[in-house]
Every structure is written in structure tokens, then in C-alpha cells.
Amino acid sequence: MSERQPLPVVALISGGGSNLQALIDAQLAGLPIRLAAVISNRADAFGLERARRHGIATAVLDHRDYPDRDAYDADLQRLIDGYDPGLVVLAGFMRILTPAFVAHYRGRLLNIHPSLLPKFRGLHTHQRALEAGETEHGASVHFVTAELDGGPVILQARVPVLPGDDAATLAARVLEQEHVIYPTVAGWFAEGRLRLGEDGRPWLDGTPVDGFQPPAMSSD
């Protein structure tokens, strides 16, 4: 029996790329993915340097060079497709994607969001969780749909909100878990265990998954 070839993955970033680094580390540790390219809408995104250090192709497509989202996303799609990825991951890509772009990658476009979706879609999730008096917070990996942070949730990790937390300390605790669950889900997809069903739900190992929520996961 031949071994499954690593799945080519394109990552989209806008900033530091710590989740990208988690995927790179997981690939080096044997996760069956191959980061084919890292694309940013910002030339100063440190994640590009992370990619270059590991010999991963990089590209910059500056959204400020385009008159509107449709024009930008059309060129972004052409750029991504040039790498023939089996999966596209958003790793801190701070752009709202057009419905046509999302539809093109239906079922092979993932995002990680720093909240327990459907709570706190959008920005400033940690501060909003604190202001709401939440006792736990976390992160969610989901398939991307045209609804902002509204796609079906695949996996979540929960962390407690501790007395004395501020947005920064809570964000750091959540980020540790992001670095665990994003490679986990990418691995499931690469192994052929995870898919987006015609019913709009994630299916894992032949069973529909509705925001699978394990206990808080260790980053060890």
C-alpha cells in the first residue's frame, strides 16, 4: 500500500503568523501536509519571514493596489490556484472574503477564530469576553462560509477566564490552544478523515460533527 502524499496547503496571513508557525512545526513533526506557499496582503507581515526560514514560497498581494474586494479576491484566487492546493488555511488573514472566493474553495478553506463561536464573531474577542463576564473562553476552527466567522465549527478548545485576567493574558492562554487545534484539524483533513458534507456540517470519520468540544487541551 502506498503512503498518502502530503497535502499541499496554502496559508494566508496578515501579521506575525504564530498559527502559521504551529503548522510549520507540525509539518516538520510529521503532519501529512506540505505548506506550498504563504501569501500575505502585507509586505511587512512577519509570517513571511517564518516561511522563508523554512524554504516555503512566499508572495505578497497588497489589497491597497485594488479598487475593490472583488478585483482583489479574483487575483488572490488566481495566485492561490497556481500552487494547486488541496487546502487553504486562514492564519490571521485580516480580510473579509467575497462570496465568490469562498464558494470557489468550499469545503477546503479553514479559519481559526479566537472565541467559542458563535460567541464573539469579529474583532476584539478577548476584551468582549471579559466585558461580558464569561467564565470560559477559547478558540474555534471552522470551515469558511460567506457569513463572517459563521461557518460550521469543527473543533473548539476551551480555557478558563481567571480572576485578574486582562485581554492580553486571556489572549495568550487562548493562543496556546490555537496552536494545538489548528494543526489537529489540518491533519484530519489531510488524512481524509474530515470533510464538509452536502448538509453543510463537518463530517469526521464518517460521523457528523457539530462543534466538537473536548476538554481544554494541553499545549505540551
Automatic annotation (TrEMBL):
Q: Which reaction does it catalyse?
A: N(1)-(5-phospho-beta-D-ribosyl)glycinamide + (6R)-10-formyltetrahydrofolate = N(2)-formyl-N(1)-(5-phospho-beta-D-ribosyl)glycinamide + (6S)-5,6,7,8-tetrahydrofolate + H(+)
Any one Gene Ontology cellular component term annotated for this protein = cytosol
Q: Which residues form the Formyl transferase N-terminal domain?
A: 9-185
Q: Which PROSITE patterns match?
A: GART
Locate the active site: 113
Q: Name one GO biological process term.
A: 'de novo' IMP biosynthetic process
Q: Per UniProt, which keywords does this protein have?
A: Purine biosynthesis, Transferase
Q: Where does N(1)-(5-phospho-beta-D-ribosyl)glycinamide bind?
A: 17-19
Name the pathway it acts in.
Answer: Purine metabolism; IMP biosynthesis via de novo pathway; N(2)-formyl-N(1)-(5-phospho-D-ribosyl)glycinamide from N(1)-(5-phospho-D-ribosyl)glycinamide (10-formyl THF route): step 1/1
Coiled coil residues, start to end: none
* CDD domains assigned: FMT_core_GART
Key word Transferase present: yes
Q: Which GO terms describe its molecular function?
A: phosphoribosylglycinamide formyltransferase activity
Residues binding (6R)-10-formyltetrahydrofolate are 69, 94-97, 111
Which residues are tagged with the site Raises pKa of active site His?
149
Family of this protein = Belongs to the GART family.
Role according to the record: Catalyzes the transfer of a formyl group from 10-formyltetrahydrofolate to 5-phospho-ribosyl-glycinamide (GAR), producing 5-phospho-ribosyl-N-formylglycinamide (FGAR) and tetrahydrofolate.
Instruction: State the name under which the record lists this protein.
Output: Phosphoribosylglycinamide formyltransferase
Q: Which organism is it from?
A: Thiobaca trueperi
Q: Which gene encodes it?
A: purN
